[in-house]
Amino acid sequence: MTRRAQPWLGTLVEITSDGDQRATDLAFAAVALVHRLMSFHDPGSEISRFNLAPVGARLPVHPATWRVLQLAEQVQAATDGVFNVACAPQLVAWGCLPAPAGTVGPAPRFAPTAATQQTQPSFACQAPDMVDKLADAWLDVGGIAKGYAVDAAVAALQQAGAQHGCVNAGGDLRVFGARAWPVALRDPRAPQRLHSTVMLRDAALATSASYFSERTWHGQPVSALVDGRDGAPLVHARSVSVRAPLCAVADALTKLVAASGKPQHPALTLWQASAFII
Amino acid sequence: MRYRHSLTVLSSVAGLAAIACPPVHATDYLNLGQAQALMFPEATAFRARDLSLNVAQMQQVEQLAGLPARSVAWRVVGAYDGDRLLGYVVQDDVVGKFELISYAVAINPDATVRQVEILTYRESHGAEIRLPAWRRQFAGKSAAGGKLMVGNGIANISGATLSCTHLTDGVRRIAAVAQVGLAK
Predict the structure, then answer these.
(1) pLDDT tens by residue, A224-254
(2) What span, in angstroms and rounded, lies between the C-alpha atoms of B159 and A254?
(3) Nearest CA distance, A186 vs chain B (angstrom)
(4) Closest Cα partner for B123 from B24, B15, B20?
(5) Distance (Å, rounded) from C-alpha A6 to C-alpha A15?
(6) Is there a contact between A4 and B167 if contact means CB atoms under 8 Å apart?
(7) pLDDT, tens digit, 9 for 90 and up, residues A127-163
(8) What integer pLDDT is reported at residue A92 of this predicted model?
(9) Parallel/antiparallel/unpaired status of strands A172-176 and A165-169
(10) Residue A266, by phi and psi: left (phi above 0), alpha (psi -120 to 50) or beta?
(11) Which of A12, A183, A186 has the CB atom closest to B118's CB atom?
(12) Out of A14, A179, A186, whose CB is closest to B159?
């Protein structure tokens, strides 16, 4: 087995497979591409370009960015806005994210979709590989792009001939091949300890919890996890794990289950996903 | 006397911690030689070189990186194809809230970052991460040939995303050190 780790997407990405070093290099290159295209922090990324663009702009984007935004659009619609990639102004206000480089003036107003009783999309994907900016908004695809990067790395490993392996982007992971892999889950009440182990075969598992990102803002506990409907911070002593065929889907749907508290939420079935809370 | 006493206490605490609290997650990815060969596959020789920064250089590093320069001396290896310099490998460790990461940064001759590889990753249960004795027990540990058996110590862990700010800061600092002390 080849096993390496590199820092990407603000976390450690670990790639294990029966492929050779070249396969691992190609898989890391796929992760690096997602990092360059979709970083909220990098002023040269396509996400930053969107965030700095005027309302009404139509932006050409890389097919990978387009697929992430299209999936974000679909999950946002299916979850009535609980999953929302436009929460960045809230996270910037809380100090969970820095303000995007190059921005001047006040942050866009984070418009809770619940207040207007309808989903107000801030962007629309237009085929092929174009995105319309519909509202003044800052997008942060951190809640889905890590999962997408894992899927892209798995595809690269398989194309390079790997038969089985595991790609883990700081806790969002996917295994492929015929063998079942043990995956340990952190204990949300003592994250340095392991809570339990599940067996995973040819599937992805993503976990969301507030234990690593929690901070205090104006005396209130906040975290990088937000309910996309009203911007309320999700601060619980529990963690949500979603199993799905694709890691991008698993990653996005953890936010739905964390906000709704429903591991049986009907939207999960749209993507053959299942969830559990510990 | 007092100093000696506190040292004894420290080392016995560290010894206890090492026995009672093995790392929850510990992985050896590459040793330095393997990382060097991966990052500079065309190299025919690697030669260690001393890099010591003077006060003015330390200040330059702080300005460039926006971070304290931290160390005067850096562990640097030059990669060569014959006599031609291909670049450098700089080795460093960072300590987070409860993780210890050893890593290697490959630097091009113009001081731009070429690649970053994690050598080892260790998590502790808590405060012992700050004890030099706890960290020393992992010094020099590395994967044998980069080959690991599945089911034999390979733990995949799912959990909330652990931010690696310390590591990205460390890479930025090394890029600045390279620009000040290594760039042609």
Answers:
(1) 777 777 777 777 778 999 999 999 999 999 9
(2) 11
(3) 5
(4) B24
(5) 9
(6) no
(7) 889 999 998 888 999 889 999 999 999 999 999 999 9
(8) 74
(9) antiparallel
(10) alpha
(11) A12
(12) A186
> d(Cα B180, Cα B184) in Å, to the nearest integer?
10
Return the SS3 of A51: helix
Q: How far apart are CA B134 and CA B11, in angstroms?
A: 9
Category of A9 on φ-ψ map: left (φ > 0), alpha (ψ -120 to 50) or beta:
left
The ipTM, to two decimals, is: 0.86
The pLDDT of residue A164: 95
At how many degrees (to 10) do helices A247-260 and A63-78 cross? 30
Q: And the tokens for B137?
A: 């027990």
Burial of A67 (0-12, 13-18, 19+ CB in 10 A): middle
Residue A169: its chain B contacts at CB < 8 A?
161
* pLDDT reading at B150 higher than 70: no
Enter the tokens of residue A47.
């996400």
Q: Copy the structure tokens of residue A16.
A: 């294990």
Per DSSP, what are the bridge partners of residue A240? A208, A277
Residue type for position B36: Q
Q: Model confidence over A92-136: pLDDT tens digits?
A: 777 777 777 777 667 777 655 455 545 578 999 998 899 999 988
Among the partner residues B98, B117, B156, nearest to A183 by beta-carbon distance:
B156
Inter-chain Cβ pairs, chain A and chain B, closer than 8 A: 127
Show the tokens assigned to B99: 């993780």
Report the DSSP beta bridge partners of residue A275: A242
Instruction: Look over chain A and give the mean of its residue pLDDT values, rounded to a whole number.
Output: 88
Distance CA A257, CA A78 (A): 13
Do the beta carbons of residue B101 and residue B120 sit within 8 Å? yes
Mark yes or no for CB contact B164/A239 under 8 Å.
no
